[in-house]
Amino acid sequence: MPMSLLPSGSRLAVFAAVTLGALLVAVPAQAEDYPMIEDTLSSSAADLEPGVPTELSGSGFEAGTDVDITVESAPLPLGSTTADSGGAFTYTVTIPADLPAGTHTLKATGVAAGGGTTLVLSTAFVVGGDDSGLPKTGYPIGLLASMSGVVLLGGLGILGYGIRRRLLLSGPAGLGNAR
Length: 179
Prior knowledge:
Layout: H1 8-25, E1 36-40, E2 42-43, E3 53-58, E4 66-71, E5 76-82, E6 89-94, E7 102-111, E8 118-127, H2 142-169
Parallel strand pairs: 1-8
Antiparallel strand pairs: 2-3, 3-6, 4-5, 4-7, 7-8
Helix pairs in contact: 1-2
């Protein structure tokens, strides 16, 4: 049935469903360097705290390669060091005291042993909040779910109105003029 022949409430319900579908599949894309190897960055402190010096260490890099240390929420460079002859490094950083509250990731990035591949060591930490110790995974969908619920309820309301209107216009017991 063409859209122009659908009752107006049904057109709005179809529009609401299409809009909801578009919102659910709209996920931001993030570019990454490939090929890439990821591993865990070690720190001398159990909890990384802003303003407190922390010793970081890692291995698996190409000997003599530069290793860049960043906080990946801004991103904010914290310094650079060179991997030793065994591909390891130790570097002391101070997390900026003015880092906004929330979950952040500290990263050490350089060329992996054997060359040709990027190695990223990382560790997550929380500033100004209670961390349950569980990893933070997935995409934050609270607002998206709320908007989807509102759109869905609106579409159902419009559909219900259209059905009720059709029944009222068709006469008693929905029989209309048929006898």
